[in-house]
Amino acid sequence: MTELIAKTFQGLEPLLAQELTELGASDIQIGRRMVTFTGDKEMLYRANFCLRTAIRILKPIKHFKARSADDVYEAVKAVDWSEYLSAQTTFAVDSVVFSNEFRHSKFVAYKVKDAIADQFRERTGSRPNVSISNPDIRLHIHISEYDATLALDSSGESLHRRGYRQETVAAPLNEVLAAGIIMMSGWHGESDLLDPFCGSGTFCIEAALIARGIAPGVFRESYAFEKWPDFDRDLFERIYNDDSAEREFEHHIYGRDIDPKAVGIARRNVKAAGLTKDITIDIADFRSEGLRIKGEEDASQTEQASASKPIIITNPPYGERISTPDILGLYKAIGQKLKREFSGGEAWILSLHEECFEQIGLRPSLKTSLYNGSLECELRKYVLFDGRLDQHRAAGGELKSDDERRQMAKRKPFKQRRDRDGEEDDGARTHFRGRSERAFGSERSSDYEKPHRRFDRSKRDSEGKGRAYGNKSRDFGKKDKGGDRRGFGDRSKRSAGDDRRARQEARRKYFED
């Protein structure tokens, strides 16, 4: 069993710990923006592939005290790097530092790089190079005051980059945050779900993956651990093709947005994820149309959808990264709509400003502080009912559960300023290539504010299908119907009856005929 670390956003640590418990991890301990646990190689692979609320998975190499730059250099140089690298291996160093002694994270990364290079020069006369874009090995060093941890990064690219996002809108919601909010609501597909401000469709897609029990890693091209010397292809192939947690989804997910461009982007993302049968995206103004499906001819279907009491999970604009006229009027309309037309359901709303929440005019049963990029936001739960609150309570209705009362009692004041001892993702990242050094800023928001195109159209095959997993040409894996072994990238979904849909177009089309 090996010590492992799963990093996450502040506020999602308990959810991540619960996910790890369900995976079968041991010695789970909740920390600040991270959860530590122990597991074997299979647990390492499953953590990367299955966790919805993790940003990356680290495998510590060494813990040590670092009171000076020399301490860092000597501790790193004392590691036998021949176990992890060769002179032909490329590597990158990420560093996160919260210390009065070390003011610049890139300086710490320089010392790590120098120690590794010097060890190889002394032993072999040559040294491994450093690569920014596609290193063979990723290293991560974290220093908090004098406590230092040097680790292997098993994930590589941040795990929030699922791979289904073809295009994005301004200020998109991070996939890990979206999944965490849905899990926080307790929804697992028991009812319809509505996002009336869906943007690029992140809430809708993450909700469908949760409802279907589809692991978020099915769309990823690669992980950093695939380049490790001890990578077990057969083990990872078995994990990738394990569909035992997948299930049918009897309800439906609706995404709405007033912006036609956003609706078009959301539809393309939903199609790329292979979830068009579970998600409907339409142009609609929530203030006037609510759940009504634009252009739907069967009115009975609309009534049935409305009668299912959909849970509402949404992130309305709040005027920070998206300019919105009459922002307070929008939130007032949201409150009126919820009160009049969604009685008997519940709504979870992520927003930034107290003034916006005040315009909703409803009393929340739960408030949770979360970070959307660099913005300290708040997630509020609203239990929707007819009439006044005293009438609702007189009829035996409850606004808060006992657990929600305990959480509210421990809650910090809204918009409390964040202390500066952490970042949402991995803090400052520093890479090196050869003799040149280049410092990169925080992955906090830039990771998901740029369009992310997983499926390169220029690399499709003659039939228009997407690239095989990781663009690997080697032939291994399970046998196809003809008895031949298929390639690692051809991860066709096994048939399990008429109700099962073949997994076609690797990582691109799932649950589609």
How would you sum up this structure, described in words?
- With 513 residues, this protein is α/β, with parallel strands linked by helices.
- Helices cover 27% and strands 20% of the residues.
- It is built from 13 helices and 16 strands.
- It has a 7-stranded mixed sheet with strand order 2-3-1-4-7-6-5.
- Helix 2 packs parallel to helix 7 (233-240) and helix 5 crosses helix 6.
- The longest helix has 20 residues, at 105-124.
- The protein is elongated, with a radius of gyration of 24 Å.
Query: What's the helical proportion of residues?
Result: 25-40%
Average predicted confidence as pLDDT: 78
Helical stretch tally: 13
Q: Segments where pLDDT lies below 50 for 5+ residues? A: 291-307, 414-504, 506-513
What is the radius of gyration computed over CA atoms, rounded to a whole number of angstroms?
24 Å
Biggest β-sheet: strands ordered side by side in the sheet: 2-3-1-4-7-6-5
Intertermini distance: 42 Å
Briefly note the structural class of the backbone: alpha/beta
Q: How many distinct beta strands?
A: 16
Order of helices and strands: EHEEHEHEHEEHEHHEHEHEHEHEEHHEE
Describe this protein with a few key phrases:
513 residues; alpha/beta; seven-stranded mixed β-sheet; 13 helices; 20% strand; disordered C terminus
In short:
The protein contains 13 helices and 16 strands. By secondary structure, it is α/β, with parallel strands linked by helices.
